[in-house]
Design a protein that fits this description.
This protein is an all-alpha fold and 201 residues long. It is 76% helix and 0% strand. The chain is built from eight helices and no strands.
């Protein structure tokens, strides 16, 4: 059971939320976008939000600043947040302007807001759940996309909500977070997307 819960935590790591949201947008949107435009957006975002953070983790681990990919302590968690903020800002100001899409632009602004709020809480000695922040951000974004484009993706949203519950259960089982940390993480992700949605919905 412990192995299963660890696999869940790895597979649904918040590291993948930016690129999954981007790929899902291109799957859902009725707007025409050439393959070149899609790959020109997805590939740089994948490199910036998945590949570079993984390399950064290996460097931080080798110099002894981080012991685990889940960054269990408050001190360890600050470094991934700093790196994530820098890379998300790079996406917003360097990648997305090349093929500007308001839905993606504000999705990433929501992720920046959520990351900033979680980083702020770290300075208050509170460790909100990055896993739940990522899952709720993605769920709320897809819900808003469904409303915006008037597309029925109820089954996909139902599966995503079920997976969010599974991730929350795994984090509790592994004693990585308290219930309060999970709830706050979930609220940060969902509210951050809701605050930006009025600009594009």
């Amino acid at each position: 059971m412990k192995l299963f819960q660890q696999v869940i935590s790895y597979v649904f790591h918040p590291l993948f939320v930016p690129v999954v949201g981007t790929m899902t947008y291109f799957l859902i949107t009725p707007k025409y976008s050439p393959i070149e435009e899609q790959s020109g957006t997805i590939l740089p975002i994948f490199i910036l939000t998945v590949v570079i953070p993984m390399i950064s983790y290996l460097i931080l681990k080798n110099v002894g600043l981080i012991q685990s990919v889940f960054a269990p302590t408050i001190k360890e968690r600050r470094y991934p947040f700093y790196i994530s903020l820098l890379l998300l800002l790079t996406v917003v100001y360097k990648v997305l302007p090349n093929n500007f899409t308001p839905e993606l632009h504000y999705y990433f602004l929501g992720l920046i807001a959520a990351t900033s709020a979680s980083l702020f809480l770290l300075f208050l000695k509170f460790k909100s759940s990055m896993h739940l922040m990522g899952m709720s951000s993605l769920t709320m974004y897809l819900t808003c996309l469904s409303v915006h484009f008037e597309i029925n993706i109820t089954i996909a949203l139902g599966i995503l909500i079920l997976l969010t519950g599974l991730v929350a259960s795994s984090r509790l089982y592994l004693k990585a977070h308290s219930k309060a940390e999970l709830v706050i993480g979930f609220l940060i992700g969902a509210i951050s997307q809701l605050l930006t949605v009025k600009y594009w919905l």
